Amino acid sequence: MSDLVLPTMDGQLATYRLRDPVRWPAIERPATSRVAYAAAHVVADPLADNTPGAAAAVDWDATIAYRRHLWSLGLGVADAMDTAQRGMGLDWSATRELIRRSADAARDVAGPALLGCGAGTDHLGDVTAVDEVIAGYEEQIGTVEDAGATVILMCSRQLARLARGPEDYARVYGRLLDQVRRPVILHWLGEMFDPALAGYWGSTDLAVATKSFLDIISAHSSTVDGVKVSLLDAEHEVALRSALPAGVRLYTGDDFNYPSLIASGSDALLGIFDAVAPAAAAALHALDAGDRDRYDEILAPTVPLSRHVFGTPTYHYKTGIVFLAWLNGHQDAFTMVDGRQSARSLVHLAETFRLADAAGLLRDGDLAVRRMRALLAVHGIEA
Predict the structure, then answer these.
(1) What is the pLDDT of residue 82?
(2) What's the whole-model pTM score?
(3) CA triple 169-175-176, angle to 5 deg
(4) How far is Cα 240 from Cα 164, in angstroms, rounded to an integer?
């Protein structure tokens, strides 16, 4: 396999040689010891106007094909979430279509095809009352329920702005959880992913916010399947998991500490599982078999990759996810809705390439090298 000249994090150029390819085992069924969702990205139409502010244009064939790829590995799909650029270019019109198409595709998959879809309030304008937030949530919940998917109740920027304290969160979530048709997943997205969500659940004090969150869950545990927590705080997650009512799952959203959290009892709903899906599937089956050493061996090399992809500013992690999908041939262009492919530097992407290779996650090294060379050439590096 050809060597490749890549920029380094210190601004130099260095020759890099790819490792031997990893052949991940074929997966015939979902893991049984944990429920695992991969939060899936959308593929932008490369021939559309994807500049900031333009209407979202999605390559539907490639987008749905990627979901089929995740299902084929036994993973669930968490759709219309942050990874799919909710609040960062994907508008409600495109989101509704994504939910409908993903649900249709899930029904076509042989065997179980786990699908959850995000419901939020991102279609609302500059609302001025909490009741308007409730109505916005109800509209999106209805869309997800009508499609037959599990509702993932996302955080609301409008609620974060309008709420005066924990009582407003209790009123909003209580109203919604009293009327959902089947149990939902609550999502707690930290401000590192979206600064507009600072102080969610009614306080910037983590202990106070956690109590508010738990009070809501305890009062409505029959309609809460689980909670998805993305705070990048492993110690807090373990404590929260132990405090949940019986039967309520904790789906880790910690893209820094997921191997130990999953091993110790968390289920998973992770953006990084989009990029490391073959390794994640193999590791979960090793956990099923009681082979913790193999589980750790598989996932350990994915952690440096994930920590890099999710590095500050964390909310730009989607660029690395799409970059890896392009390198691996899951889409024809390194293009994102709203032009977000420009959110990470060439140096950052080169390190992503190296770390993905070290984790055995470049499935066709020759293709990955060709595509990386094309990107380097655009930046004036043709060595």
Answers:
(1) 96
(2) 0.96
(3) 90
(4) 24
Q: State the DSSP string of 186-206.
A: EEEE-TTT-GGGTTGGG-SSH
* Length in residues, the chain: 383
Q: Buried b vs exposed e over 182-201: b needs ≥16 C-beta within 10 Å?
A: ebbbbbbbbbbbbeebebbb
Q: Distance (Å, rounded) from C-alpha 60 to C-alpha 84? A: 13
Closest-CA residue to 326 (of 259, 270, 374, 257): 374
CA 300, 319, 267, 281 torsion-angle sign: negative
Q: How far apart are CA 174 and CA 82, in angstroms?
A: 23
Tokens 């996810």, residue located: 321
DSSP tally for the chain: helices H, then strands E: 15, 10
Alpha-carbon distance values, 205 to 33, 198, 210, 266, 328 (Å): 34, 10, 9, 24, 42
For residue 225, what are the contacts with CB-CB under 8 A and spacing of at least 6?
Answer: 150, 183, 184, 185, 248, 249
Q: List the beta bridge partners of residue 152.
A: 118, 185
Q: Coil, strand or helix: which one is 274? A: helix
User: Which of 172, 264, 162 is CA-nearest to residue 213?
Assistant: 172
Q: Residues near 316 by Cβ (< 8 Å), separated by ≥ 6? A: 340, 343, 344
Copy the structure tokens of residue 24.
């991940």
One-letter amino acid identity for 115? Answer: L
Instruction: Please tell me the predicted confidence (pLDDT) of residue 55.
Output: 86
Q: What is the tens place of the pLDDT at every residue in 192-205?
A: 999 999 999 999 99
Q: Binning pLDDT at 50, 70 and 90, where does residue 1 land? A: low
What per-residue confidence (pLDDT) applies to 206?
97
At residue 347, the pLDDT reads 97
Q: What angle do CA 27, 150, 197 make, to 5 degrees?
A: 105
The mean pLDDT of the chain is 96
Q: From start to end of 196-312, where are the E strands?
A: 224-230, 249-252, 267-270
Judge contact between 141 and 151, C-beta under 8 A: yes
